[in-house]
Amino acid sequence: MRSGVLRVATLSFSCALFISASVVAQTKKESEEVIRVDTELVEVPLSVVDRNGKPLTNLTKKNFSVFEDGKPQDVEEFAAVSAPFEVALLLDTSGSTRADIEIIRRAARDFIASLRPGDRVSITAFRTTVKDNRSVSVPDTVIALTSDREKLRLALDRVSTGNGTPYYDSLVDIAGKVFASEPSDEFRGRRALVALTDGVDSTSLESFSEARNVLTAKGISAYFISVNTRDFFEDQLLGDCHSAMRFSQGQIKRYYASFGRGSKVERVSDFCNLGEFEKLAISKQLYELAGTEMNELARLSGGRVFPADDLNDARLAFKQVADEIGTRYSLGYYPTNETKDGKFRSIRVEVKGVPAGSKVRAREGYTAPTN
Fold first, then answer.
1. How far is CA 172 from the centre of its chain?
2. DSSP strand E in the chain: where?
3. CA distance linking residue 222 with residue 296, whole number of Å
4. Residue 87 pLDDT > 90, yes or no?
């Protein structure tokens, strides 16, 4: 009888231990889930090349260490180079490219064909519409992300030209529309913008800083095929002001803003009152600014800028971008700094077990969320 009581007592105690352990485990699990829901995964796309620039494609999670503001972080997610990508293709089809639209289509077709079968692509271009009784150029999402190559081919046939360059607006549009939803697991940390452009904006309502912020916040790698259109543009600027290619009001304001608020430089808002020397000075400043902006966004996001002397060179540059995307790793971590202060956090990735002289190109940082 005492033995039976002892067995019952032992069983009750064991059950209590089991329930207690289950509660603790469940509480711990819920606690971890709360932390992870409250702390967003930081995605870091990256590539590694040897001293000769050849991509290293056989690395694993163990080869990488990641640091945020100098503090080591635990790598929670890792994707090898074979994982697919989602690519937002932006084609600068402003009025000056009207005669070259078929060259742009052909270069874009070659680029899409050189991507891997599992990669998904969207296409954004410019189109002209009427607002407030005047023609304006706006971003046009010709096709959303898809892996259907036939649909993409037909979409390229629908790409048209605009009468201005809403370049910044298009970057913001891509972040907010093409990449509006969270990526599925297979594309996490593997999203890229590929823009064929000269980077000189003329009609956007948004600013470059806004475009940079929304793209880097989403961890999108930015690649630019920087087409040199300056000689053509400046040829069209000079001569009779009524038939010449004009600066937009936004471009003129951007030029004068470069002198700072205290500048005593005489400001001219009417294009026809600009002298030829000043027209060339404005053009020079706009193209230098465009180059600086493209390089900054590429560096922050872990992408690259590929120069192209003209649209014919764009096909080779597109192939280089496709090759680069096909050799990208990605990793993700939950930052130990959970403070939502809206401050910039630097990211550094180190790689070990690789040949001497190897280099890493990765996302350099992000802006923390705010309360």
1. 10
2. 42-49, 64-68, 71-73, 75-79, 86-91, 120-131, 134-146, 191-197, 221-227, 304-308, 329-333, 344-351, 359-362, 365-367
3. 10
4. yes
Query: Is the model's pLDDT at 38 over the cut of 80?
Result: no
In 3D space, the residue among 121, 131, 126 whose CA is nearest the CA of residue 194 turns out to be: 121
Contact 133, 64 (CB under 8 A): no
Please state the pTM of the whole predicted model. 0.84
The fraction of the chain above a pLDDT of 70, given in percent, is: 86
Sorted by where each starts, the structural domains of the chain and their CATH numbers stand as: 38-81+329-371 (2.60.40), 86-325 (3.40.50.410)
DSSP state of 348: E
Cβ neighbours for 139, distance < 8 A, ≥ 6 positions apart: 124, 125, 126, 166, 169, 170, 173, 174
Instruction: Return d(Cα 7, Cα 339) in angstroms, integer.
Output: 52
* Rounded Cα distance, 337 and 348, in Å: 15
Which residue, among 158, 176, 169, has the nearest Cα to 131 in the 3D structure? 169
Residue 365, sorted as left (phi over 0), alpha (psi -120 to 50) or beta, turns out to be left
Digit-coded pLDDT (tens) for 298-329: 999 999 999 998 888 899 999 999 999 999 99
- Round to the nearest angstrom and report the end-to-end CA distance of the chain: 64
Separation between Cα atoms, residue 202 and residue 30, nearest integer Å: 51
Beta-strand relationship, 75-79 and 86-91: unpaired
d(CA 149, CA 356): 40
DSSP string, 291-339: HHHHHHHHHHHT-EEEEESSGGGHHHHHHHHHHHHTT-EEEEE--S---
The answer to whether the beta carbons of residues 239 and 322 sit under 8 Å apart is no
How is residue 49 written in tokens? 């090349």
Q: Among 173, 174, 168, 142, which residue's Cα sits nearest to residue 156? A: 142
CA–CA gap between residue 137 and residue 170 (Å, rounded): 11
